[in-house]
Amino acid sequence: MTSTIRVTEVTKEYGPVKAVCGASFELGRGELVALIGHNGAGKTTLMKLMLGLIRPTSGSIEVLGDNPAAGEFAGRRQLGYLPENVSFDSALTGRETQAFYARLKREPMTKALNLLETVGLGPAARRRVGTYSKGMRQRLGLAQALIGHPRVLLLDEPTTGLDPELRQTFYEVIEQLAADGATVLLSSHALTELEERAGRVIIMNRGIKVADGSIDELRRLARLPTRIRLKVAGLAASEMPAWVPTDTICRRLNGHIVEIDAAPDRKIELLHRATASGNSVEDVDVVPPSLDELYAHFLRQSERTS
Amino acid sequence: MNVLIIAAKEIHQAIRNRWVLAATLLLAGLALSLTFLGSAPTGNVGVRALDVVVVSLSSLTIFLVPLIALLISHDAIVGDMERGTMLLLLSYPVARWQVLLGKFLGHLAVLAFATCLGYGLAVGALAATGSRIDFDSLLAFAAMVGSSVLLGAAFVAIGYLVSALARDRGTAAGICIGLWLLLVLIYDMALLGVLALDQGRSISATALNAMLLLNPTDAYRLFNLTGFANVSTFAGMAGLAQTTSLTMSVLLAALLSWTLVPLGLAALAFSRREL
To answer: Which CATH class is domain A225-288?
Structure first.
């Protein structure tokens, strides 16, 4: 795996506030990485550091072979960035704005302008950006980030203000780019959306990286119970099935559903017991811990240790 | 290349926002009214009309051009940062000095266009009404237009320096108004006051020259009112013109360094700024 972004022991202080504290990670080609954390966890600061908009207090960053803190920017031709709350000069039209950014990247004009169609801005492209709604500005922001063949995409809250249909298109586009070898780093609050798509998740809390890995790895690390929901016939309203081991938490939901918190390594055993018992199981649902729960878990863990 | 792309965008925006139109109309309107009303006190006998225009227009320029220049420049950096457009622009493969220089060329082009067209109309109107215009007057007029653009360049650069240092747009605007008042109005009054009090005892001619060069508007005034013999007689500056040892090239150099030094400092401040 060749890495496109390398962050080494990076700390950024704003006066007494540590926005990022000793963060290290490497992002490789073709990775789709979700950066998650509360507001103020250091997500935007990390992206600004990668762009050289701010300089780290200590530590070093390398992006596409450049050191952004030293003002190197040769690699930025192959970098797309969508800031949080993107804004444009209101006097120019969408087309003019897109053309300006394509010129700065020395990319062919027609391809760049076609991106306006991709993000569904076609009819509005000849109107001034000043007349755009928030969602339309966000679309234009995506269009400019996708100009050329980005090898690195830094997307800060990319799907806020997008309607569900465009969200779908957006994820298709960036999954395609990642499949072609681009590194995509995106921060978001919409954790359920990321759950199926991100190959890797980095969780930040108060500037500290508290977890980093694929969702499966995080699940293993967190050891959060998988919930097994069984629809069982022939049980009284508050009665627990006899086959559930005493050390396992078990509760009843709306009358006829039994929910069991199963430790990851006991899932199969419990399912086995359930089917082998006398109660007739009518339906079964296995719910692994969601990204939401993993996120909450790692935050609690880091709060306890700090 | 990047510099030109950014300059072109600034010009495009200025045309869209009607900045170009407003500045041109303002300068043209004032130049035309000065051309025709301004010759009333002197009459038309024995006085070459264009020389009078140079005197009155250069006095107007000292007030107006710095004001227009500061208006378009004070917002250039801090304003784009507040609006968030600078964040995106700097994520592109451009250096910060290229952004600054591009904006400078764009804003200067707007100012130069407005000045040349606005003041050019005045000459055109004089010629059309049959005034005699000879070569000396035309030369003095061309020098006046050229130095007006240079004066504008100096104040655009000063505006950028303020914009690169100021915390927010309001502060930048306030500082720029203060600087305008200081350099255009207060400085000369204070200098006059000091000279009157001093009665020529301790302030030498060299010191006075230095103090005049320390203000770009004074360099501009001296350049236009004493530089050309035909003009200085009407400007009431003939006496000063004979005593001052500041040559035209020194005055031009002063205006040029009033442009380059603030521009360089603005680039330095901008390159260190975090956003």
So the answer is: alpha beta
